[in-house]
Amino acid sequence: MTHRPSIKDIARVAGVSPSTVSRALAGSPRISEQTRQRIQTIAQELNYTPSLAARTLVTGASPMLGVIAPSLADPYVAAVMQGVEAASHDRGFQRLVASSQGDPEQEVAMMQLLVGHDVAGLIIISSRIPPEHGAGLPRFDIPVVFINAFHPGEGIYHVMTDNEHGGWLATTHLLERGHTRVAYLGGPQQGRSHTARLAGYRRALEEAGYAYQPSWVVPGDGTPQAGRKALRWWLRQPESQRPTAFFCYNDLSALGLLSEAYQQGVAIPEDLSVVGFDNAPLAEISIPPLTTVEQKARELGRQAVASLLAALASKPVTDVILRGELIPRATVAAPRVSVIRDQ
Amino acid sequence: MTHRPSIKDIARVAGVSPSTVSRALAGSPRISEQTRQRIQTIAQELNYTPSLAARTLVTGASPMLGVIAPSLADPYVAAVMQGVEAASHDRGFQRLVASSQGDPEQEVAMMQLLVGHDVAGLIIISSRIPPEHGAGLPRFDIPVVFINAFHPGEGIYHVMTDNEHGGWLATTHLLERGHTRVAYLGGPQQGRSHTARLAGYRRALEEAGYAYQPSWVVPGDGTPQAGRKALRWWLRQPESQRPTAFFCYNDLSALGLLSEAYQQGVAIPEDLSVVGFDNAPLAEISIPPLTTVEQKARELGRQAVASLLAALASKPVTDVILRGELIPRATVAAPRVSVIRDQ
DNA sequence: TTGAAAGCGCTAACAC
DNA sequence: GTGTTAGCGCTTTCAA
To answer: Could you tell me the pTM of the whole model?
Structure first.
């Protein structure tokens, strides 16, 4: 296999200059229909593909967007990615994807790397860089959009789920069904989503007149294993003091909790009600189907691309906040024994 | 924001020539330790990042691998991607990821596109390009690795799961538990995986002395919805002729089947046994936990990268076939009524 | 040990 | 409507 054909090769065959080829292929109006045809045919025959590296070099902008996520295995990330994919594809951009394994240092390293690849902009999903670090973020001359993280700055934009509201929604739903002892299974500590959902949980509690109990916030990390552990924690509590419901950081950990409950003979929702977060595709097919708070993940991805491209076009961009609804399914019921308000 | 600093900027500040900077940064031995230090410091201060586009242009090879998958939402794809991610990251390669939405034409278009980006090689996950089309595949002068698809050719390599064996494993497991009426819920028709699993299913049946019944192969596409439909199909069969077990193309559709069974009051595994394929993370937390055939998805991804880089280094590369084991969990039991061998 | 010069493939003035 | 020229940021001869 000889080397990839370049416009020079086409020019030679067509007997024209390289710039004519460039123009013909770019669809410049100032070229005769005839030569355009001829050149396009030759390009086809030679199986020509333009070198985007060269084009990038001269135009200074490449049709690539950099995307960074803590993990590619998380269904939430996958959903966001689909939105990013769809929107960017429509606008003619490719995506350079990197995962940071949830490590803030890796994350910064990835940013550097992608910038080196001349990406036109950066989308960062669920950044784990601590907010304090904010000012220490490396400055690039390309726009950056954070999805569900907040690092204010020039050229930095945000697309977020209203996590506080979501947490409030989930907890209120439980409270309205008569639960007075609601626990929260947390997510990654560094994450802003976790903190916001926790805050919403707390607000709902307090608005309803219940004291916030730190001991009912069980630490987690958003994995099914965390859900399993949470259920075992629940079983260890004295029966009279057990929460009657769990609001979980995400569907994945809620699903883990469901699974462990099944194995331990705990009936859901009879013995324990559960609400998740995300409305992942799996939530619909879980057993029983999981009540959850919708997160418009695809929409987040789509919006992030929209914001990025708007910024690129020097249009004004404002941060956007998306609210999801509560999706009632089958993991919530009234508590078996209506406990007397004990606060 | 002024433009990204280039080696020229560094050279000017350091009072040396651009080539010296290039050498210093590349770690060439023919440079004084002193200047190297100085240049590196300046590079740091200027927040310099090399332009990979420029480097690609001159070296002719970029540190990017192109990856194409039908969908990014599929957990199996996500797992393969993790393997690809891990292996390529270790070797200093980034990944340019594109999804084809399962459309063969898009797939070819994506190949072209990624080649235009000067990727060093291509990894294609579960290609939907029909095998006959094989010879019509565009020829590139970069190595291509297909994961779970087969398109022989020069510079084309394969990493596959032994799907035939997996299908045989699942079916045999069911047969050994006393099932005589085993149905197969299929996957995407164009996919090679589907055909191979079906073939294994058929072989197991015939080896055990049962006739293969085309009417027991229910068409599907690997989604949970396909699983739901399959269960409803099952319910419509006259009770005396109903299969007592299902081997499903993948875990996702098996999970859908489980969910529908729960909603219709069909007890798993008492009324119906189910075996999936993939051993997705979700299989472990399903209710009941799903018996399935392991697919070493991460390993597939890892191997694909290894093969690609080996080919790139002009080392001999052979196709690799990975076998997974049957993971017995809780969705298989002996059939309720031991049906008399009726074939 | 360092510099000068050429060139990777392409686009974009600027000519004609 | 088409050709000429220069240059994007980098690496890599070839000289010194």
So the answer is: 0.89
